[in-house]
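Write out a record, focusing on structure:
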Amino acid sequence: MTSERTSLPSLLWPLLLLALLPGATGCASTGSAGGGGDKEEEKDEDEAKDLAKKVELARLELDLAKLEAEQEVAAAERELTQSKVEADKAHIERAGFAEIGRARELDEARLGLDQSRGRAEDAAAELAELESMYAAEEFATKTKELVITRSRRDLEHARRAVDIAERKLKETEGYDLIGKDRELEKDDLSAAKSVMEAEQALAKLRLEKKIAVAKAEQELAELQRKAEKLAKKNEKAKEKGEKTEKPESEAAKTEPPAKEGRP
């Protein structure tokens, strides 16, 4: 009976001393708080990794936006240059026709008419000469008829050529030259319109790409700010944890060991 009474207090004394020690409850609470801190730290680390991936993706998207902008703007500039070349060509053709081509074609038509008239006059004179020469001849009747018939046919052809040349001249003066001038004017105006549209398209494309690049830059900058903010937060939490752990470890080193009580 006496041994039971003495053994029970001897077992309770260490427990009572442990409960009264200030570091005992602190260690328990620190352990539970440390578990929560580890979870929070893991969450912050996961968020930091996710932000790092997003930053890298945003950087790639920005590079892609810049590359697309350069390529598309360069293509639009080439198209504008081509439009200007075609416009210059159309303008030169119109000016050349107005200054030189119109007069040349008109002169060619007039020359054709004059040539046809000359051949007709030559044929008529030749026929008259043949008729006069063969009029006194009493022999070679068949030869005379053959030569005169051929000359009359040549004269008829020459007169028909004159008629065609006259009509061609009128057609050239009244329709062909005017129609060609209008066609060249149309091509000139169409080319000028293409240049204007190409310039507007290039200006619009430049503005759109500038906005797209600016948006990509803004998104990248925003993600970088978030990543920096989270990094600072994690750094502060790490420093705070180190400061909290240091006094506890020092207190544990300086604290004397607990002695067992005696009955």
